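Example 3.2
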Amino acid sequence: MHRRFMLWTLTLALSGGAYEAAAQGRGRGKGPDNPKSEAQPSPAKSSGFGADEVRIIREWFSNSANLKGLPPGLAKREQLPPGLQRQLAKNGKLPPGLEKRIQPLPRELELKLPRLPDGRKRIVIAGNVILLEERTATIVDILQNIF
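Structure, written as tokens:
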């Protein structure tokens, strides 16, 4: 009797451990008990254009008086070919060959916006305002079809 009780207890203990191991899965430690699995905002989301920045940029470009003094590259309402336009995606890379079309954000507008961290810049390409990581040419955030 005592032997059966011990065998039953051992079986129960082992099956509970096996259940726990199966429930944990084969993931990389991302579970509710693991503090590393807490949802953390990605750097791109937390450091992209803020709501105030978007509002300021859209209002500035919607004012036709601001568009009159722009350099020729910005004043034209040029469009990128559809393939290149699709490549301009958040967290993507700046497509090769677009460097010559890059225009800095107008100085008057840049002064109204918060200062960027070193290594980032705001640029304009064919009606899109892009927040760019200069070193890697990674698009941190993009506002498409601003004007």
